[in-house]
Amino acid sequence: MRVLLRRFSRAYGAAPYQLLLVLGAFALTAYVVVLLVPGPSFTRMLVWFLGAVVLHDLVLFPVYAGADRLLRAGARRGRTAVGWINHVRVPVLGSALLLLVFLPGIIEQGEFTYYAATGQTQQPFLGRWLLLTAAMFALSALWYLVRVMRSRYLGVGRDGN
Amino acid sequence: MFQLDVTYRAVGSSPPPELGSIRPAPREETRRDPWEELPFGSPAGAWRSLARLRPAGVHRNRMWRSPLRGPWLTSMLGAVLLVTLPLVTITGLLSYIAYGPRFGQAFPREVGWLRLPDFDWPTSPAWLYVLNQGTHVILGLVLIPVVLAKLWSVVPKLFEWPPARSPAKVLERLALLLLVGGVLFEIVTGVLNIQYDYVFGFSFYTAHYYGAWVFIAGFVVHVALKIPRMLAALRSRSPRSVLRTTRAETRPEPLDSTGLVAAEPAAPTMSRRGALGLVGAGSLLLGVLSIGQVVGGPARRVALLLPRGRSYGSGPNDFQVNRTAEAARIDPADTGESWRLVLRSRNGTTRFSRGELLGMPQHTATLPIACVEGWATTQRWSGVRLRELAVLAGIPDPTWARVSSIETVGAFRAATLQSNQVLDPDALLALRVNDVDLAMDHGYPARVIVPALPGVHNTKWVRDIEFGSD
Known about the structure:
By secondary structure, chain A is mainly α.
């Protein structure tokens, strides 16, 4: 029996309990699909489900990884006594995160439902997001300035984080 | 560059070549990539030929350079999600129960075997639903940077070649699709829902509920399979030592068979503590910009980018509205002098004008009203206790009460309350709020307000209440 299990594991590539777990998950998912298929919007849900993965893995990730590569190339060329790369990275990431999460309000999408629910419009959000972005960049620049000053007067090296 | 640790890949035990006058690299700097030497399952020949069919450009050594990626970082982020994602999931499922599945008013209505255990949702403490939904929504938002960072930390696995080395790996990757698809689908639908953007064109409730089950399936498999590896990786270095390591001292983790560590890492531009701090700062930013919609008061103004962070001016009726009278197409004529509250039971029907209701003993309670979307507001409501209305209807001990609105179009124009929700001493048919009449948008001439009841079930513009004891 033990030999059989070992042989199975080697051929299959994992222990038998892995197979049981994975099949259990597929069975549950298949059951969800069975429940959803008669509904009118199953295809849409499937598209959104797979679309979320594809957009993250093949659009969002390459975009931010590519942007970061450019930034690093720029940082290598424009070397300064105090490294500035993270002073750009952090506010960009902060601003992009807010844009990603609060996009509907910022681009005034879904305004009809929004108005029905609140009696208000989404007009303020774009301005607020821009102000938050500006504030993050300003803080980051200020912190950079402090680091530059400190390194100049105290001779502190170029490594913070 | 003193990168002497040139990659000597897969050359078995052959010693590193001599490099002339430069001193030979110490043994441990020989970077053999154990990932490349993983065994193949059956049919081994097929996997091996697949490995040889490597597309141009997909090369582990050239594509992935971050020195921070590795089992420790992935496990740290994984540990955070292991503790927090179940909380988000459970509060979500509890919310489904709070909607009252037994009365057919939890959505989706028919869920087959995925029915949750049904119990009387408590009315005490009154902030129970605020806490539940606040946790669900705010924690869900706060975890977005952690989820993204976790995905970033494992993204080399997605592009690795060969994509699988055994049947087990094929199935595991498919199961990962359930996990990643599930978590992203839940985040996307949830985030759109709290901003009233229904671009997806399917029922939010249905999609979010079933999406959760797919996520649970993927999550359980992933946790069960990865937990030993996670614990081992976490033990490999103490968090304190990571928090003490500066950028200059940051080294890649040792190459191992997980395939997470870069085979040819670039110089670090950020320390591990910096990376964790960055993720934490992202979470903090989202937390600060959203918690105000739950706690209310002056903090609400800090929720700058959320629909529920906004002021409605000042005055007793100036708090959040979830459906305006205009959107509910309430005809002002139906709410005027001719309006009557209709009480129904098997004993017959009785009607009361607003004046008569105001003449009855009034009870005042300070209660929050909390929405499934995770926002809440606490106000001082006054009106007639529901249990006194039950007595007037001749059913002093009702097991349920069905409240219907004047509204004829919405999905929530009627709601059934459980016995404890009718009998709670603070459960009201509210006529006034903060010592003034309810505004039209808040449900004038009368609305229901029950402690710890999901917001939409506190029916506005009440037309009739039917009490039953069966």
